[in-house]
Amino acid sequence: MNGSPLVSVIVPSYKAAAYLGPLCQSLQAQTYKNFEVLIGDDGSPDNTAEVVAPFLADPRFHFISWKPNRGVSRATVTLLSEAKGEFWCHPGADDLLHPDFIAERIKLLLGNSQAVLVHGPPIHIDGSGAVISPENDKASSVVFTRGPSLEQLLQHNTINTPGVMIRMSVTRQVIPFFSTTFQYSQDWFLWLLLAATGHDFLIDPVPRHRYRVHPISLTYSPERAGCRQAETRLTPLCALAPAAQFSPEAGLLWARWRRALYALWLSRSARLYLRGLLRDEWLQMGARAYYGHRSNRVFLGVELARHAFSILKYFIAEQVVVRRQLFRVSGLALVDNPVFSKNPKKVSRPTP
């Protein structure tokens, strides 16, 4: 495809040797040909290098490895620093792309110069590749005609990462503000930063990728469950704080919801503390976002006393609004965006 923009396919991989081969095959089957593939072996103890080796005969494929394991956030940033594409996508090492994935996603972005990201729904598959219907996936019932907007993303992340195609120039602008410490919601953090720039998010309603769902439960890992619970409160707080400078909309949303975001995080902190799961780094991270990067060290007891009224106020307000929403959103339920409501026409916004 002469004159077509280069697309960088970013693939961090950890313990995914069993699935990398099919992903690479799905990339070679793309109808769009002008792409590079950057596979990063993130300290895997398996035979990732052996699986990737045959594909390196294709000059579009590149393999980087390092030890020890850095985590998906740092691995992604590492690969992005090596990427040369004008656009990039981020399939999981265990996912699959349909042959027209890159072609159709690029077509949408090229047709809208104000768009920074296009995404679409997945087809869910299990470990063997069989199509499944994930249980209790109420978020899949939320349909956007265009978006989601920054406000909607504050409430819940409905973007499936393997299905995105993103403009690299805007990514470069926001990546200095991206936190690599998040383990479970790092993608949501990036979407919030990108949405705050004021660029459009587009939707391709046709499923063009297969998202592998593994039966891994956090029930048996309190530490992992605690980390996820902390991140769902910290992500909108820590992402919106720096993003407030990107656009008037982001600045207004930060001014409106700053106090609520911090109060609800403190409430979550107290519960994590009582279960012995609170990490001091999380507490300091939330304080830096709320008070500014020059914030002094904070202590949970002092913060709970200082913000007691706000904590009670927003905790009660949240209990009211979640009852009228389709499902328990992962972020700031108080936004109460109509798209997540059981009865959109009857939604009245809470007062910050």
Structural overview:
The chain is of the alpha/beta class and 352 residues long. It folds into 2 domains: 7-212, Alpha-Beta Complex (Spore Coat Polysaccharide Biosynthesis Protein SpsA, Chain A), CATH 3.90.550.10; 222-346, no CATH class. It is 41% helix and 13% strand. It has 12 helices and 10 strands. It has helices at residues 17-28, 48-52, 72-82, 101-110, 150-155, 168-174, 186-196, 222-243, 248-274, 280-291, 300-306, 308-322, and strands at 7-13, 35-42, 61-66, 87-89, 96-97, 115-119, 123-125, 165-167, 200-203, 209-212. The strands form 2 sheets. A 7-stranded mixed beta sheet has the order 3-2-1-4-8-6-9, sandwiched between helices. A 3-stranded mixed beta sheet has the order 5-10-7. Helix 7 (186-196) packs parallel to helix 8, helix 9 (248-274) packs antiparallel against helix 10 (280-291) and helix 9 packs across helix 12.
Structural class: alpha/beta
Mean pLDDT: 92
Count of individual beta strands? 10
Determine the strand fraction and express it as a percent band: 5-15%
Q: State the domain count.
A: 2
Q: Write down the CATH class of the largest domain.
A: Alpha Beta
Described by the principal axes of the CA atoms, the overall outline is: globular
Name of the CATH homologous superfamily of the largest domain? Spore Coat Polysaccharide Biosynthesis Protein SpsA, Chain A
Given the structure, what is the number of helices? 12
Which stretches are poorly predicted, pLDDT < 50 over at least 5 residues? 346-351
Determine the fraction of residues in helical runs and give it as a percent range.
Answer: 40-55%
- Oligomer type: single chain
Give helix and strand order, one letter per element, not per position. Answer: EHEHEHEEHEEHEHHEEHHHHH
N- to C-terminal distance: 52 Å
* Biggest sheet descriptor: 7 strands, mixed
CATH A-level architecture of the largest domain: Alpha-Beta Complex
